[in-house]
Structure formats: structure tokens, C-alpha cells
Amino acid sequence: MQKLLLLGDEAIAQAAIDGGISGVYAYPGTPSTEIMEYVQASKTAKENNIRALWSANEKTAMESALGMSYAGKRAMVCMKHVGLNVAADAFVNAAITGANGGLVIIAADDPSMHSSQNEQDSRFYGKFALIPILEPSNQQEAYDMTRYAFELSERMRIPVLLRITTRLAHSRTGVECSNPEKQNDLKLPDNLRQFVLLPAIARKQYRELLGKQAQMEAASAESGYNRIIEGSDKNLGIIACGLSYNYLLENYTNGKLEHPVLKIGQYPLPLDLVNELYESCEEILVLEDGYPVIEELLRGMLNKGKTIKGRLDGTLPRDGELNPVIVGYALGKKHLQGSAVPDLVKNRPPKLCDGCAHNDAFLALNEALAPYGRGRVFSDIGCYTLSALEPLEAINSCVDMGASITMAIGAADAGLVPAVAAIGDSTFTHSGMTGLLDAVNNNSPITVIILDNSTTGMTGGQTSSAFGKIDNIVRGLGVAEEHIKVLKPLRKYHDENVAVIKEELKYQGVSVIIPRRECIQTLNRRMRQKAKAKTMNI
Amino acid sequence: MKKDIILAGVGGQGILSIAACIGLAALEESLYLKQAEVHGMSQRGGAVQSNLRLSSDPIASDLIPTGKADLIIAVEPMESLRYLPMLDPNGWIITSINPFINIPDYPEMEDLMKEIWKLPRYITLDANSMAKDCGSIKAANMVVLGAATPFLGLEQSSIESAVKNLFKNKGDEIVELNLKAVQAGRDHALKQM
User: Fold this and answer.
1) Residue A323 lies in a domain
2) Size of interface A-B (CB pairs under 8 A)
3) Is the Cβ of A113 closer than 8 Å to some Cβ of chain B?
4) Residues 6+ positions from B68 with CB-CB distance below 8 Å
5) Does any domain span residue A185?
6) For labelling alongside A224, which of A265, A327, B126, B134 has CA 20 to 30 A away?
7) If 0-12 CB within 10 Å is exposed, 13-18 middle and 19+ buried, where does residue B168 land?
8) Binning pLDDT at 50, 70 and 90, where does residue A3 land?
9) A478 and A416 in one domain?
10) CATH value at residue B138
11) Overall domain count for chain A
12) What's residue A32's pLDDT?
């Protein structure tokens, strides 16, 4: 079979295409973005009419995928870990409704917070929803498990969660693909009340889900994704989840493991295998690239059994991503260190691009706010979050998608007037609109700056759901026409822009200011494509 | 055969093109390959690196253990020093000496060069000028790639066919320019070794 050089994200996307999906739903978020991008760029996906458009947020994506599953077709929904918080209502209830067509949820976790606000472990969500979880250790498994996930979902009629981490999502290697499947035909659920979660039906459905737990565990024992690899030194037994297995293997040059290892790739945990390892070894080391999920269960609250080593007893760091060296230390191995980094090497943090519109917008905002003093700007998630750092130091919060407007409401209620919210266009349609409605209904004295660069910038310039719609949305939510101001964030208009912002800061109600200028990255990309098209015509 | 390589630079400088060329060449020689990239937030003018591993045997970890990198290939001199803890005591550094200054406390060039000259094994090159001589400063990353080729353990013909592959959509002229840039870097390194 053909071998492709693929990122972990791309391996999942290719598997979904080969697995006969009819649609993929997602909101961009590092490290999950490339899954949708791969499907969008795929010729096969286009030929097969696979639906692949960005959704307004992860919740709408999850619900749309559930609808496709209802109609009997295979659907995939992709998000970063914190996106699963947004989708959680639909996600947890989808376990109660169950699936009709195969339904697979991809959650890409980000231990070490390379590009995130926390390092929550999506395996908790899978357990919470009582559904099977798959956790690949490499790109090939990412492909194979995605194919298997659809099959498992249809066989057990439940959604399946596939959990990856940044390192796998963004690492490339050769992947072997298997025979493609056809898409399902449209087929309604056998029981037309399956998806009606009225209490009486939900109770029945929930008991059905509970009843499937034993089957799920049996699947974990039979799939081959959980297995014991023999080792002669039984003073220690190792449980290695997902990617951590590679880091373990890296510590043995000949690929021969010293200790017995239980390699975990599927949950709920196969208890017989866990018991087999536990009983045959003196101590257990648990390797998890994320939270100590299994470690905590094995220790129990009182920790009175065998010695369990891992993130909780300090054998491994409590936070951050694992790597071969950290795992090596846990095994008592010594590692080389190259020479130290010379002192003259300075940090080079990410920053706003040269020519970025956000820079001009924040320079104007900073000047307009100067008379009131610092500490009044609630912001959000996107490139503009970088304005918290020097030299702008323009914002004072970044919590979750949409929190800028609603935090400004609360702060204004507490007496911080004026309070300012700064939010991007894509973030606004993701989760800012409802907050703005609250502000209008409260008549909150806040100034909302919607930084419209007409794209989803931080994740690489994906289509923004807000494109061309912001002014009408703001009007429709009830913001007074005379307090909706569109600015051109350019150095040459700085003084006028400052004057407009100053005026609105004085207003004792909701104002919306929209600095609108295209992202410099997407603009440059468009210009390059235009130039290329021109030369090709000649 | 095993080569563990750290690619270093600043977001937007094109280290992923270098990685792609080496990756394609390794595939042509049927080697195993793993390449961990940095996407997302750090790409905005921040320090970026990629772990590239080539081997005739299967590769376990996507990340290179500290002290095990055979090569650091950098398109920026300060960035070449950031990953020294990763470098094997017998490893080489191949770096451009053209600074990318986007921070206020960037060190003095003279001090920076002194640090590089302290290292036991290095190749330094003025990649920008060399690329300009070849026809475009945009090929500076290919000059750096060229300077790394004597250390990669790959056939030069595989590298050249990878460059052709990577740039073929941009026309013959661009392919030729980049091949010339790779050769210029290679010649320079062979002289300095």
C-alpha cells in the first residue's frame, strides 16, 4: 500500500477520508487545525463531496456532526482540548443519544501549553461521558485508530473520542494507508426517539449507555491497542499510555525493553491486563503525557497498595509534556547534556507581525485610555493577546473564547467605568455575540473593540465566520447605530482614531468600535497568489 | 545510519523548507524519518525549532534526547546557540551569520561570533550574500542547507532531486537558482571543514 509522509493531524484526516466520512466539522485551534485543512485540500474529499467547512465554534461543530450521524452517515468533529469545554454540553449528551452513523470526536491536547491557556487532559472528558477513548502512540496508529474508531462507533452505536497531543499532531512520518470505504447511505435511526432526551427517554438511554460499559472494556482488551510486552526485570512494571511508549522505547538502544510494559491505546482500561501487570511486578511506573489519570486510579485515595510511581510522587514532573530524557530519569538512566546555553542568548517571544493592524488599533486605544490609567482592558484569545507583552502592554485579561465582553460587563457592574473589551472578529462570532447581547440588555457602560482582521489569524488564516457580517450582527443585537464606529487602523489615521475611542469611552452605554484592516499575513498570501495567477496567464 | 538534526531559526525564516528537502531526500533513500515541527503561536517572529530524525532503523521518539543531536542547522546565529544542550559532544553547528534582530536586547555581533568560535566544530556562512550572488536573497535557507549536506550522510543526488521536487511548481529558473544556492553552501562548508 501507498506510504505518505504525514503529520499526526494529517494521518487522522486521511483516515477519515478513507473511512468514508461524509463530513468534517471543526473550529480552528492549535494543535488540531491541520486536520480540517488537510480535508479541505484533498482532491479525493472534493470528488467524494465530503463536507469540510469551518463552524462558528466547537459546539456548533459537535452538534452538526451529531446531526450527520443521526442521518446515518459518518461524521468527524475536531477541536483543541479547550474547544471540548465549549462543545461539552453537546459532547456529553451525544453519549446519551448514542450514534447512528459513525461519530468520532478528535480532541488535541496541548501539554506544556505551547499554544494554550491550560493543559487539561481530554481523557477525563471521555471517561465523564462514558465513551471509548483511543490514544495513538504514533502517526500510523493515528491512522489505524481513526479507521477503527468509526467501525467501533457504528458497532456500539456510541460516539468515540480520539485523543492526541501536540507532539503527535505536529510531527511528520511515513504512514501506510489501507483500502478506502464508501460513504454510508442516508438512513434514519431505527428508533425515532433515540435522539429525544426527554427525561423518561434519557433515563432509558443512559441505562443503555451504562449497560454498554462491559462491552467497551471487552473491546479494549480485544482490539490489540492494549497489550503487554514482556520484560525480564519484574522489580518494575510500566504502564505507558499513548505517545509515552515511544519515549520509553527511546531509552533502550536495541529496542528491547527491560521491564514488562503494558502499552495503553484504548479506554476504558482493560482491567485483566492491568491486573496481570500489577500482580507480576513489585512496583509500577505510570507514563502519561497529560494528567495522572491512570496513576490516580491505581493509587486510590489512600495509596495503600504497591508503590505507584509517576507524576504524583515526583518520579516525573507534575506538569508539562514528557520527553525521552524525563522518562529516562524515571528509569534511573543517565542522559548526556550538551553544553549550556550561553548567557548572551536572549528570549525571543512571539510578537505581532510588522504591519499588523492590531498594533495600530492598540496604540490608539492606549492613548485614548491614558487619562483613566492602566488595568481596564479585558481581552480574548487570538494574535492580539500578544499585545499584553511589551511594548504595547495594552490588555489585562485573556481567559477563554469570548470572556472579554462578559468580564467587562462584570467589572463595569463593580464600578470600573469605563471598562473595555478587545476581541477578534472570529472570536466574536465564536462566543462573543451572546455576551454583547447581555451588555445591551444591561445597558453596560462598556466599550467593545472588535478587532476585525477578516480572518482567524493566530491559527494561520482560516475563513472567519464573521467575515462581512459584524456590523449587522452588532446592529441586530441592539447596539445603537450612533455608537457603532468603524475605524481604519493605520498610523496616518492615529489621531482621528484616538478621538473616536475617547468619545465612546465617555458614553454611559454599550459602544462598539470596529478597527477593520486585513491581516497582513493573509493579505501577503493573497498578493502572492494573485501574482502567481498573473504569470501563469502569460 | 542515524542522523538527529535540530533545525533552528525565527518564525517565518523558512526552516521547514530545509526540513522538507532533507525529508524528501531521506525518503528517496528509503530511510525512516520523524520530524517534529512547531506550529501556532510561536511562529509569530518567535524562536522556532524542528527536530528531524533520520535512520536506517525504525525511530521511536519524535523528540531528540538532549546531548544526542548530530547537527544543529541554524538560519540565524543567536538561534544556533539556543539548542546547545541538545548537541552531541561530537556534533557540528552549521549556521548563517546573518542576524534577525526583532528584540531590543539582541547581543552584539562580535560577542555572538566569539561564542560560536568557542565551539569545537562549526561552519559559519554569510548565507544572505551567498544567496544574493546566486540570484536571490530568498535562497539563503537553501545555502544553509547546502552547507549542511556534507554532514547529512545522504547522497548529493538525493538532495538535488528533493530541491527540484520542492520548487518544481515555481518554474525552472527558481529550481536552478536553488540548486546553485545549495552547491554554493556545500562548496563553502567543504572548504571550511
Assistant:
1) yes
2) 155
3) no
4) A336, B4, B86, B88
5) yes
6) A327
7) exposed
8) confident
9) yes
10) 3.40.920.10
11) 3
12) 97
